[in-house]
Amino acid sequence: MEDTATFERTDPAAPLRQVGALIRGARQGRKLTQAQLAERVGTSQSAINRIEQGSQNISIDLLSRISTALESEIVSFGEQKKNSHLRVQGGRQLHGTIAVRSSKNASVALLCAALMNRGRTTLHGIARIVEVDRIIDVLRSLGVSVVWSPDGQDVEIHVPDDLSLESIDEDAGRRTRSVLMFLGPLLGRYDTFALPYAGGCDLGTRTVEPHLIALRPFGLSIEATAGWYQATVAPDVPEELTVVLTERGDTVTENAVMAAAVRDGVTTIRNASPNYMVQDLCFYLELLGITIEGIGSTTLRITGRSVINEDVDYWPSEDPVEAMSLLTAGIVTDSEITVTRVPIEFMEIELATLGEMGLRYTRSPEYAAANGRTRLVDVTVHPSKLHAPIDKIHPMPFPGLNIDNLPFFAVIAACADGDTLIHDWVYEGRAIHLTDLTRLGANVRLRDPHRIDVSGPTHWSGAEVSCPPALRPAVVILLAMLAAKGTSVLRNVDIIARGYEQLQERLITLGASIETFRD
């Protein structure tokens, strides 16, 4: 096994955490305990634990001994970064308990929203993923102070009076669509500004027009020139404003909410998304002194403030898409696992649909998340004989089935008796990526760019697959490999790190056999 990291520019403690994560993954791939590794390299178990947590400096000599013991080149210096791949030994049941971590989408929105606050914002338990790192890179390029806590769990943000808009990190901005969510906060501070064209997953045409429609009532106009969005903000916006969104999109709603929060006046937003990341954003804004009526509904009435200077702490809620990913791992491997800290309000339709397909599961009583607002439960899935649903499976805006959870039903349907139609009406390209399941033995037929037919049950078998260029389908292929007997290889898996923190290492704790290697 070869597993190599090249150091990249980030906060000072990040390289130690990166190396620690690689050592932990390589050790687990070799099925060694910390004590066994410590014995091989001549150090203590507690030292190995600190190294894996990224809380202890490590000498080149010790790093070399660890690399030899694990038969893995942990770190390379000055070399071009190599492609990362996963080798999976599938066809085994999982077991144990795993906790859902904080929401990627909420974390990104909250980082953007922190631009509105002149005081201190501390976000606790924020997702340590590539998408978050890219937004932080953009923030820092604007002159914002973003400092991680020593344990890498929390981030403290201080925004200067004047942002260095001309110094924006163009490269980081182009690699994430989330940079669009700077529009709302910035239009409250500047008459003109520019943002780089946004990137992200390959999911077909994803127009920015709904964002522009949502923000025009706030005086924003956009001209696209030479790879940049050139923004101009008109000053004559009425104090009382009503905005009707033509698309009930999550990020579109977040942009409108932030634009409403940074103006003196009252804004009513209709056809708003009440989804989990929007609620997290509203809970944070309330701490900043913004009055928001109708949280959790499609009509929001927001009383904003043009000057915000508050010291606040906020804990993003848990991620329902990660919860669905982990539950799916147990379902497709016919295992009994417990997933804790599941945000049940945003998983009820998914669990009801799975129940209709024959899944046996139990759930704990509800308890509160760290933010005091989100309702959590623990869900245990049990080995079950699944059957296809009577009706098609399709997403809807919240409180319907989450669009990001839809792809997981493709691999679940492949484990069920009968035929299932999955209709992904939002993205015209994502369904195509799910046909890669056929490489592992599934019977998946593409009707058109939005619909697939899945017939089961599947006799999964190992194969080599190139990672789809879209986050959720990529994870779906990985989960199918856990069910597939024999050896599978998933190539070029860096996209998974955009939305998941150490997913493969965490699956290993449930008994999965996953090995990271590079070439």
Automatic annotation (TrEMBL):
It catalyses: phosphoenolpyruvate + UDP-N-acetyl-alpha-D-glucosamine = UDP-N-acetyl-3-O-(1-carboxyvinyl)-alpha-D-glucosamine + phosphate. GO terms for biological process: cell division; cell wall organization; peptidoglycan biosynthetic process; regulation of cell shape. InterPro entries: Cro/C1-type_HTH (IPR001387), Enolpyruvate_Tfrase_dom (IPR001986), Enolpyruvate_Tfrase_sf (IPR036968), Lambda_DNA-bd_dom_sf (IPR010982), MurA_subfamily (IPR050068), RNA3'P_cycl/enolpyr_Trfase_a/b (IPR013792). Cell wall formation. Adds enolpyruvyl to UDP-N-acetylglucosamine. This is UDP-N-acetylglucosamine 1-carboxyvinyltransferase. It comes from the Bacteria. Pathway: Cell wall biogenesis; peptidoglycan biosynthesis. It holds the Pfam family HTH_3. GO terms for molecular function: DNA binding; UDP-N-acetylglucosamine 1-carboxyvinyltransferase activity. Its EC number is 2.5.1.7. Its main location: cytoplasm. It is found in: Cytoplasm. GO terms for cellular component: cytoplasm. PROSITE patterns: HTH_CROC1 (PS50943). Residues 23-77 form the HTH cro/C1-type domain. Keywords: Cell cycle, Cell division, Cell shape, Cell wall biogenesis/degradation, Cytoplasm, Peptidoglycan synthesis, Transferase.
